[in-house]
Amino acid sequence: MTSSSYDVVAVGNAIVDILKAVPDAFLGEENIAKGGMTLIDDARADHLTARMADAVVAAGGSAANTMTGVASFGGKAAYIGKVADDDLGARFTQEFRAAGVAFDTPARATPPGTARSLIAVTPDGQRSMNTYLGASTLLSTEDIDAALIQSGETLFLEGYLFDRDEAKAAFVRAAEIARTAGRKVALTLSDRFCVDRHRESFQHLVKGHVDILFSNESEITGLYENDDLGAALDTARKACPTVIVTRGEVGSLIAAGDETVEVRPMPVAKVVDSTGAGDQYAAGFLFGFARGRSLAECGALASLAAGEVISHMGPRPGTNLRALALKSGFRV
Question: What fold characterizes domain 6-12+62-111+134-327?
């Protein structure tokens, strides 16, 4: 296997995040499901955009957020995702490259527009996402840069991308390229919503193509239709070499073969916004993995990154993660 130019190459939904702190009453007024993700059309997106004036706007998307975290740790990251040739697409590209992530997927010249996720953040830090997928789901096999994927230590795939057949084909194609090149493949299940819609496809992908699986407790129990976490984790570890389950304030579990590592969360004075917690957890783990760290060290770096991002608004690091890790005594 040839040496890699990138620590991680990701494929995902390229989305601009629009975040607004709101009272709980706002969710009732707009019939928004608390703590979940709901797909919306362009009219609904325009309505919520108008209601969420003076919001925090940032280039986002789950796997895209993870890549900015990898770069913040000092790692080399690249991304494949689809934006439109519009103002939001230009903003996404500019911010993403400024964060140190390689991004060269051609923009789409015709409608629909660049995707956006309108995120209502309640006083308890919970984020409720209303997502207009727009151009992001129009990623196709033609956008999959084989040479780029072959140059990455790990390919990171985002479960949110699974809602359209063409995007799903691109997803599987990317995994096949990575496996053929001897690279590792990581997958995040993204959301219970995704798991319930694509359970069979995810099970097949995990068993045949995935080396590292990221999930939370609801997603892993939903994937294997077993409400007992231990039983679901036992099933998962038989299908995938490394399985990670994040559990919020309880911490996380990393299962590899017969080994199970319990990872404590990083203490946080106040949870301001949980948006991006799982994304940055994945960034810390994948960065540590690329550096050959133990599972325990990878988990600790993951918790560090997740703890940092939930302490402020927005899904990306507000502090340089490399500097934070060094200050906390980590090897980076």
Answer: UDP-N-acetylmuramoyl-L-alanine:D-glutamate ligase (3.40.1190)
Spatial separation of the C-alpha atoms in residues 23 and 9, rounded to whole Å: 38
The three-state secondary structure class of 13 is coil
Spatial distance between the Cα atoms of 117 and 193, rounded to a whole number of angstroms: 15
Whether 320 contacts 100, CB under 8 Å: no
What are the tens digits of pLDDT across the range 242-253? 999 999 889 999
- Kind of pairing, strands 127-132 and 115-121? antiparallel
Cβ distance 19 to 275 under 8 Å?
yes
SS3 label, residue 241: coil
SS3 162: helix
| Tokens 């230590």 sit on residue | 153
Instruction: Please give the Cα distance from 330 to 332 (Å, whole number).
Output: 6
- The answer, yes or no, to whether the previous bond of 106 is cis (omega within 30 of 0) is no
Tokens of 42: 């362009």
What's the pLDDT score for residue 194? 87
Determine the residue type at 212: I
Q: Are 284 and 73 in contact (CB under 8 A)?
A: yes
Q: By the 8 A CB rule, do 303 and 252 touch?
A: yes
Residue whose C-alpha is closest to residue 310's, from 284, 283, 281: 281
**Encoding tokens for residue 216?**
């939370």
Q: What three-state secondary structure class fits 180?
A: helix
Question: What are the extents of the domains in the chain?
Answer: 6-12+62-111+134-327
Structural contact between residues 140 and 86, judged by C-beta atoms closer than 8 angstroms: no
pLDDT tens digit string along 178-193?
999 999 999 999 888 8
Q: What is the pTM of this model?
A: 0.90
- Calpha distance 87→325 (Å, rounded): 35
> What's the rounded Cα separation, in Å, for the pair 318 and 275?
13
Q: Which residues pair with 246 in a beta bridge?
A: 216, 252
The Cα–Cα gap between 146 and 101 comes to 18
Strand order in the sheet with 152-158: 101-103, 77-80, 6-11, 152-158, 184-188, 212-216, 242-246, 252-256, 259-263
